[in-house]
Amino acid sequence: MLEKLKRHKREYTREYVIRVLRHNIINLNLKPGQLVSENEIAEALGVSRTPVREAFLELSRASLVKIYPQKGTCISPIDMDIVEEIRFMRCAVEKAVAKLCCDVFTESDIAYLEENVRLQEECIAASKDYKHLLSLDNSFHEYMFKACNKKMTFDIIKSTMAQFDRVRILNFVEMDMQISVKEHKQIFEAIKNRDKEMAEKLMEKHLTRVIFDMSYLREKHPEYFKSDSTQTSNVVYGY
After folding, report:
1. Could you tell me the end-to-end alpha-carbon distance of the chain, in angstroms, rounded to an integer?
2. Could you write out the DSSP letters of every residue in 43-78?
3. CATH 1.20.120.530 in the chain, residue ranges
4. pLDDT tens readout for residues 165-189
5. How far apart are CA 102 and CA 34, in angstroms?
6. How confident is residue 209, by pLDDT bands cut at 50, 70 and 90?
7. What contacts 24+ positions apart, CB below 8 Å, involve 218-222?
8. pTM of structure
9. Would you state the CATH architecture of domain 13-75?
10. Which residue of 25, 32, 44, 137 pairs with 77 in a disulfide if CB–CB is 3.0 to 4.6 A?
């Protein structure tokens, strides 16, 4: 079922539709392979068909939907080649950011990450709300970039994250969410202790672990993944 979002003040209709569809694709409310109707989306959101059509075109450029002329539009399967490339980019950059955090973090920065980790633990204990956990997860990483004055770098990475985030959501749904929270806590402790080598090592482990879970996730939900994706078997792990 399509989850509606509150429309931002002065938000263009096209941008609103894109944001709603991205949210629903990432959170698997719209599942890989699912057909989506221009008319039904327009009706559900109370908009005309034009911004929906424009949103489909924009999302197709991000490989989130596939448009078949004269046939319709469907949600793209998860492409593991794309997921691996995003993981590679994040890992290369965020290892450097983790080390930099050890140099620049203030007491207030440490307090923010500590509270974020506490909220992650509380989220799992209270409700196992995987959508909220993903939001806290993203905030954890985003804050590290901000504290290092690298917000623009994070925004560039964030713009590519939709394919990767679908895997993260599926991971949270099907596997132990506590693992991710534990890794965040370890990264936080390394930064708090100004241990650059450990912070870098833990960040690499954290951002590479998702690939190890793919065999299980693909076996459980083969219909969600692009069938000709072979990148997973070609990854070389360095820890």
Report:
1. 40
2. HHHT--HHHHHHHHHHHHHTTSEEEETTTEEEEPPB
3. 80-234
4. 999 889 888 888 899 999 999 999 9
5. 44
6. confident
7. 218/80, 220/174, 221/170, 221/174
8. 0.85
9. Orthogonal Bundle (1.10)
10. 32
